Amino acid sequence: MSDARLLILVLALPFLGSILAAFLPTRARNAASFMAGLIGLIASALLLSFYSTLATGQTVRHVAPWLPSLGLDFTLRLSGFTWLFALLVLGIGTLVVLYARYYMSEEDPVPRFFSFLLAFMGSMLGVVLSGNLIQIVFFWEMTSLFSFLLIGYWHHNQSARDGARIALIVTCLGGVCLLVGMLLLGHIAGSYDLDVVLGRGDIVRAHALYLPMLILILIGAFTKSAQFPFQFWLPHAMSAPTPVSAYLHSATMVKAGIFLLILLWPVLAGTQIWYLIVVTIGLATLLVGAWSAIFQHDLKGLLAYSTISHLGLITLLLGLGSPLGLVAAIFHTVNHATFKASLFMAAGIIDHETGTRDLRKLSGLMKFMPITATLAMVAAAAMAGVPLLNGFLSKEMFLAEALESQSGTLLDWALPILATLASMFSVLYSIRFIHQTFFGPPPVDLPHTPHEAPHWMRLPIEILVLACLVVGIIPTLTIGPLLQIAVRSVLGDRTPDYSLAIWHGFNMPLLMSVIALVGGVLLYRRFGGRLNAMTNSPFIGRLKGRRTFETVLAALIDGASALHRMVSTKRLQVQLRILIVVTLAAGSIGFLTYGYSVGNGPTIMLDPIFAVLWILGGASAIGAAVQAKFHRLAALAMVGVAGLSTCISFIWLSAPDLGLTQLLVESITLVLMLLGLRWLPQRLPEFWPGGRTPFNVRLRRGGDILIAVAAGLGAAAIAYAMMTRPEPEGISRFFLEQAYHGGGGTNVVNVILVDFRSFDTLGEITVLAIVALTVFSLLRRFRPAAESVELPVQQKVQNAFDAGREDREHGDTAAHYLLVPRVIMEWMFPIILTCALYFLIRGHDLPGGGFAGGVTASIAILLLYMASGTRSVEARLNIQPVRWISVGLMFAVLTGMAAWLAGYPLLSTYFSYLELPLIGDMPVASALLFDIGVFSVVVGTTALILIALAHQSIRTPRAPKPEKAPDKIPDMEGDT
Amino acid sequence: MELQASLSLIAPEIVLSLSALALLLIGAWGGDKTARMNSIAACIAIAFCFAIVAPRVCAGVGGPDAVAFFGQFKADAFSGFAKLLIYAGSVAALLIAPNYLERVGAMRAEYPVLVILATLGMSIMVSAGDLLTLYIGLELNSLAAYVLAAFVRSDSRSAEAGLKYFVLGALASGILLFGMSLTYGFTGTTNFNAISTVVAGGLSGGAMFGLIFMLVGLAFKISAVPFHMWTPDVYEGAPTPVTAFFASAPKVAAVALLARVALEAFGTQVDAWRQVVVFAALASIIVGALGAIGQKNIKRLLAYSSINNVGFILVGLAAGTAQGAASMLLYLAVYVAMTVGSFVALLMLKNENGDQLESISDLSGLRSVSPVLAFCLMSMMFSLAGIPPFLGFWAKLVVFQAAVDANLVVLALLAIAASVIGAFYYIKIVKVMFFDQPSGVVLGKSDGVHWALLIISTLVISPLGYLATSWFGDLAQRAAATLFLLS
User: Fold this and answer.
1) Which of B209, B220, B234 to mutate to test the interface with A (most CBs of A within 10 A)?
2) Structurally, how many domains does chain A consist of?
3) For residue A557, is it within any domain?
4) Which residues are within 8 A (CB) of B1 and not within 5 positions of it... i.e. 6 or more apart?
5) Does residue A766 register a pLDDT over 70?
6) Which residues contact A794 (CB under 8 A, 6 or more apart)?
7) Which whole number is the average pLDDT over A259-279?
8) Is residue A744 located within the same domain as residue A721?
9) Residues A512 and A631 both lie in one domain
10) Fewer CB atoms inside 10 A, N or C side of chain B?
């Protein structure tokens, strides 16, 4: 198998294991841990086999095309450094699996734990092995997700839930920042491929977007590595099961940020801004972490803050920008992972066997668990930087680098002092950890009787502590070569000379080390006893990261809700208003940017009479809008006036055909609406306490009027500007030219309707027919509510009058109601019908046509119904609207199809003139037959709707609803 | 022959309209007992259309070959890609509805007919090559949607949703129409390509007005801020299957239509509309994220989530490049899967009587009651939050990449910041499901169709989805490229 394939296997194994573990039965603790351990071992072994290749300085790459067009490939990349890091992930992971087998209790669903743990291991390996920027982010976010699941594993525990949530939110925030940062980096470098990016450091650092990109990537790395001010999530993540802490907070999760900084170090580091940001943050984290660690009473809390502090140290080293600093950073990363993992595990054993992690309760455990105590002591000594242990070596390098720093800022002389101080703190809390736990009088009041942990549970610690010792004593033989290939893979030719020797002679770093060690011991002797009584870290105790976080979160939620309440509404009126206002605003911006100019086209000469007409129409429209809410009848009447002024405008502007049609349509729709009006519930008159409309209501209405007027004027102004510009070349010229020659008519509109676009007309009359049928079927079973067919007041008065007189019968007055108009309307019937026929026939050449004729005929019927009442009309006149409709449609279709018989396309027309005696020239076009169809459909349609409406008046009303509690009346007006 | 070629290009639309008419007749004669059968028939019809369109998308058809009716209609790969998503969303809406509607006593034979008509409208919308085609498609879709929103007539919330949607939608249509007439008045044409040629030399003030008003009308249809207010109300009030439909297919159609107008008709004047789109994108992301935080009803929450997602889609559009259009299509694809999955999961939350549950607090402890359902919903939420390994991450990635490559760094940054806020409430749902004490409300059984749809959509957005991304990304890219072909 090729190297590249092996690499895929290494990455895939943990994920496969994770899926397998998820399907194991809940109680399969042994099977799950055995499988997880095996996977860790196999993957580590596979990874080790790469050593020979990497030792020669090569990089193993595997590229699988994924989205070549987006510059995204699935790339695996193994260099010396990533190899070392991957080994750390897998090696410590395997030890943690072994440890967790004994740590987790049988009641826990252990396979799920291992499933998450393996998935996390895989994600972490993914981060390490990725050779593509985006891919790194992908796995990076996955580590956040799985660490969330791991930290929240004991979900019945409130603090575990909170810790998991805080960790997820903080690291996700960092993750998305990192995503954009990486996108920017890829954008700057021109490729997302890591090797390409690494080779373009100079271009990247000189780019204008370097700073935003740097900050985003740093936020990503700092949130993950718990750097100040994002450090607060880490201590809260300590509610996780201890194996999780041992794994996440020693070798993996928090090291991901460090890993990234080292990986991108050749590209990003070396600028002034890098130095300033990274060193400052690192230093702050180092001090804050070390200081807080001193005052913790929870074993794991102490370790958590010490982790923060050490991470700050590594960040600081990277910030220095010197190759030697990088060497020290890599070295300390490895060392920290070893001793911190063992310390966490030891803390877990103490917790497991005594039932508490509270330093104040623990004491004298040396007698009960001597082996664990010894191991913990060695590991803690490594953490404190005691000679002959690995921590000492990297700390010496760190102190030496702190002295070397040459940036020309205040940091130069502050660094050595602060570094020594932090080391002193580190010694102090290490001593406290050991002394408080293992020495002193035997413990009292412990939940469990302490005893030594099982051997297999201690084994991982033993291995790690052995590593600390071996590396500390014979560094050149053990870690030396590994460190060398790791450093060389990052720095290449810039690899500096460095020495891993334990003894460098008497020099400044040694002196600082000694000061730190002695100072730490002295401080503990002086203040150690008092530490147990402190509840807070002095000076920075008030800096509660979590409280700030919760406050920010709460403020965000409150702010969001407040904002939401402010800008959102469920009320339709307000939504409509916003829609209009925003549109108006958008239009106004356009006005302001582009100005307003009228085109060169002919402007309308404003005739005073015409202006009066329009003012009348406009006023009626406004009046209709105002009255629509209070008096529907009045509103309808005013709508009629507005429509009428439109009709007159058409006629004024020489469009008689349009005017006629508009007039007819206006009348019929108005009457039909009028007939429907009576079924709407009656509006109650407006009533305000005190008889005055409140100010806010008047204000709102005034505002609405202003908005409406502005929107209307704006629309009119734009339309005017458009219409005074040259018209686009449309098809009207064609119709004007062809109407007579091609269609045989001088009424161009009619020719268009029945000839040029007769197919459209056919469709329209079909729709018309469907609409009528729909209205009819909707109203067929409709019975008006009892109150809406109540007799009008006037009629009631008349009836009462009749009933009160002896010589009159009930309903006598009503029978003669509107007698004169009724007679006139009945007489008008044949006249209007004749007129309708006239319109129909002359339509081809003069204003009129099937549609206008049809509407006219309908008006005749309508008037008859209104004048005589439904019963009396239907007793004498049998209109069969459905038949009219079907005959009309048939006419239209057959006329059209007749063209086929003559070999022309559907609906072609034939026309000629017929000379009739008395009447004169009569155009005979097949279009006339088509128009008759239109006429018939229109008549039938209108009559059908009319009948459907009219029949309501003779129907018995719906039985009144049984009394029940009144429903909540919908608040249509809203904020009144 | 031109007519025949055109007819063959609109084959899916012909199939849809004929089947709508046929099903209407069957429903009219057979009554409501044909409703289920009609639904199945409708699914088959839409699946048939899917089969017609799919090869054209795979082949990346574009250019003059894909133009029907003298440029009025474009059956290119871009419209094809959108159509596939629309058909998928419509089929889902047809499949999930019967059980729900039967329970509330509102399963009528018209439901599948209306869905098909809406689908037909959307199909026409995304293929529009002309303002008139655009309007016909849009109105056909909208009118069917108004009725669907009010489909459960006995429920006052549903009726209110229908009315609100209609009134506001009609107003928005009016504004759109005004913008279209201005565009025609100042450019002298309604054809997208011709408009693009006319405005290439410079955008006159009048055409700018037309563009703005058209954007307003279309922004309403995709419920972008500040025209989003109807969304939570309508989503909450409409029957849940209809809401699922609204949130998936019509979004795709409206976004694709917007892309056509912006990139095809006004593609030569990207700067003219970019600011508007950038504003709408940012405002949508932020309002969507903030608005979701305080919600207690899952449907309202998902409504805000859809507003939020539209913002991200608009980020892709704002790029104004082929890459941006492709990222938009990809985001839409993932979004449809996530939305359908979330709503199906919502439909599966029933109490012991089988009544629907809609409150977030009802979710608490869902893990112990129905682990599979909880896991699927968790995947949806993480995917919506854009957390890997779920496919939502990829969707966000391509969009941001397009924005960064188009030098819209600030937009990407702000969008990112808001997306963190968005992640907050998705995570909150996961927390409620997994960590809170079981409320023991969710007890009802769900039927196989729901389970199947839920599992399918979960699989799509699961890490397995990444196996298809290479192929899918390629498809989207070729589809987006057809937008930039002059035909």
Assistant:
1) B209
2) 3
3) no
4) none
5) yes
6) none
7) 90
8) no
9) no
10) N
> Are residue A473 and residue A331 in the same domain, yes or no?
yes
Per DSSP, the three-state class of A716 is helix
DSSP letter at A200?
Answer: T
Long-range contacts of A755-764 (CB under 8 A, 24+ apart): A755/A907, A755/A909, A755/A925, A755/A927, A758/A896, A758/A907, A758/A909, A758/A927, A758/A930, A759/A896, A759/A906, A759/A907, A761/A892, A761/A930, A761/A934, A762/A892, A762/A893, A762/A896, A762/A907
Q: In A797-855, where do the E strands start and end?
A: none
Is the domain of A771 the same as that of A872?
yes
- In whole angstroms, how far apart are CA B188 and each of A78, B174, B198? 62, 20, 9
Any residues with CB less than 8 A from the CB of B464 and at least 6 apart, and which?
Answer: none
Question: What three-state secondary structure class fits A232?
Answer: coil
Q: The domain containing residue B93 runs over which residues?
A: 1-483
How many Cα atoms sit within 13 Å of A422 on the Cβ side?
A: 31
CA distance A164 to A150: 8
Instruction: Please state the domain count of chain B.
Output: 1
Kindly determine whether residue B401 and residue A172, on different chains, have CB atoms separated by under 8 Å: no
Evaluate whether residue A211 is within a structural domain. Answer: no
- Lowest model confidence (mean pLDDT) among A706-710, A742-746, A881-885, B322-326: A742-746
Whether residue A613 contacts residue A652, with contact meaning beta carbons closer than 8 Å, is answered with yes
Q: What pTM value is reported for the model?
A: 0.86
Structure tokens, A562: 């407040």
Q: Residue A90 is which amino acid?
A: L
Please tell me which of the candidates B389, B419, B431 has its beta carbon nearest to residue A176. Answer: B419
Q: Please determine, for the modelled complex, whether the ipTM score is greater than 0.85.
A: yes
pLDDT over 80 (residue A629) = no
Residue A612, domain extent? 569-681+699-726
A795 confidence band (pLDDT: 50, 70, 90): confident
Contact A563 B400 (CB under 8 A): no
Q: What is the mean pLDDT of residues B382-407?
A: 87
For residues A51 and B209, give the distance between their C-alpha atoms in angstroms, rounded to a whole number: 67
Task: Please report whether residue A61 resides in a domain.
Answer: no
d(CA A780, CA A776): 6
Q: Which among A139, A175, A578 has CB closest to B229? A: A578
Cβ separation of B182 and A66 shorter than 8 Å? no
How far is the C-alpha of A596 from the C-alpha of A612, rounded, in Å?
26
- The closest CB to that of B226, out of A559, A572, A582, belongs to A582
Q: Do A654 and A787 share a domain, yes or no?
A: no
Q: How far apart are CA A742 and CA A730, in angstroms?
A: 18
d(CA A463, CA A40): 16
C-alpha of A136 from chain center: 24
Identify whether residues A587 and A502 lie together within a single domain. Answer: no
Q: Supply φ then ψ for residue A744, to 5 degrees.
A: 70, 25
Look at residue A857 and tell me if it is in a domain: yes
pLDDT band at residue A1 under the 50/70/90 scheme: very low
Q: Where residue A484 falls among pLDDT bands split at 50, 70, 90?
A: confident
Residue B200 token pair: 């290439």
Select the residue from A123, A722, A773 to test the B interface by mutation, using most B Cβ atoms within 10 A.
A722
Interface mutation target, options B424, B434, B467, chain A, most CBs of A under 10 Å: B424
